[in-house]
Amino acid sequence: MEKVTIIGAGSWGSALARILGDNNHQVLLYDRDEATIEEINKYHTNIAKLPVGKLPDSVKATTDIKEAVTFGDVLVLSVPTKVIRGVITEINEVVDKPKLIVNASKGIEPDTYKRVSEIVYEVIDNDKILGFVALTGPSHGEEVINQMLTVIAAASTSQEMAERVQKMFSNYTYFRVYTVNDLIGAELGGSIKNVFAMAAGMLYGLGYGDNARAALITRGLSEMRRLAVALGAKEETIYGLTGLGDLVVTTTSFHSRNFQAGVKIAQGKNLKQTLASMSMVVEGARTALSAYQAARKHNIYTPIIDAVYNIIYHQQPVKEAIDELMLKALKPED
């Protein structure tokens, strides 16, 4: 039995608490929102972030960061990458002994292009880090909270730590975890796919069909591979659960907040209006900026990423961006 603290009681943090509770681990959820914490402790629900399903009665919650960090031998980060630096700075101030850190967020920091693992090792004193694992792959909290079959991966430079997380989260009814030794590829795949999820939503919002979406997934995978490999990933990782798997689930499902955001943008809302209308964080918007910047720095051809960037940050009409993609010079697929 593990003692696990989950930092962030959003939809995915709550879903992960469900798995760990079902697997008989001791779980403490942390969040700053007092109403959310009160609801979890009293009713074992989180209606605002996850309107379906319930948490096990054994799962507890707190607004006290010191209590939360002290409780767990394992710290699971499930907060938007926009606030990750601030959150782990707070953790570093109160952590009492080396912890295994598991990141369940998906994003790349703009301007630095840093992955969450890099930020963690930069901000937290390294003698307070027992190990780092990225828990990532094709998964929606709305399905996990209802114990629907899900398969993802635990990625780490340490096989021992990856296997510890694998055993912690896996069960024989609805949740299975593989291990991956390419941390860079797993983190990049889980982040970059959100850009294409927004693009898929834009296609849907304009009335395009399955043919267009299939093309987007295929060509998006090609861009993801080129950019991720340039940033140090293994090519085979991009074709696994943390790359292709995550790309498919977020480009084909209304559960995806990034897909939903793309629909809204295609229907006339700008980025500010879109984000304001959603209750959950849209990581794809920030990642579009990070991926665009990284592609320019490394001279990588990423026409779809560029188009999403221009739509979001330069208000280019979605139809105009699609027309420009269609007008590019004809060439071999590879």
Going by CATH, the architecture of the largest domain would be 3-Layer(aba) Sandwich
Taken together, the total number of domains comes to 2
Integer average pLDDT: 95
Proportion in β-strands: 5-15%
Q: Which descriptor suits the 3D outline?
A: globular
User: What percent of the residues sit in helical stretches (DSSP H or I)?
Assistant: 40-55%
**Rg over C-alpha atoms, rounded to the nearest angstrom:** 19 Å
Through-space gap between termini: 49 Å
Structural class determined from secondary elements? alpha/beta
Indicate the low-confidence ranges by residue numbers.
none
Give a brief rundown of this model.
With 334 residues, the protein is an alpha/beta fold. The chain has helices at 11-22, 34-43, 65-71, 84-94, 116-123, 141-144, 159-169, 183-205, 210-230, 235-238, 241-251, 257-266, 271-276, 283-298, 303-314, 318-326, and strands at residues 3-7, 26-30, 60-62, 74-77, 99-103, 129-136, 150-155, 175-180.
What does this structure look like?
It is globular and about 60 Å long. It has helices spanning about 10-20, 35-45, 65-70, 85-95, 115-125, 140-145, 160-170, 185-205, 210-230, 235-240, 240-250, 255-265, 270-275, 285-300, 305-315, 320-325; strands at about 5, 25-30, 60, 75, 100-105, 130-135, 150-155, 175-180. It has 16 helices and eight strands. Strands 3-2-1-4-5-6-7-8 form an eight-stranded mixed sheet, sandwiched between helices. Helix 4 (about 85-95) packs parallel to helix 5 (about 115-125). The protein is α/β, with parallel strands linked by helices and about 325 residues long. The longest helix is centred in the middle third of the chain and has 23 residues, at about 185-205.
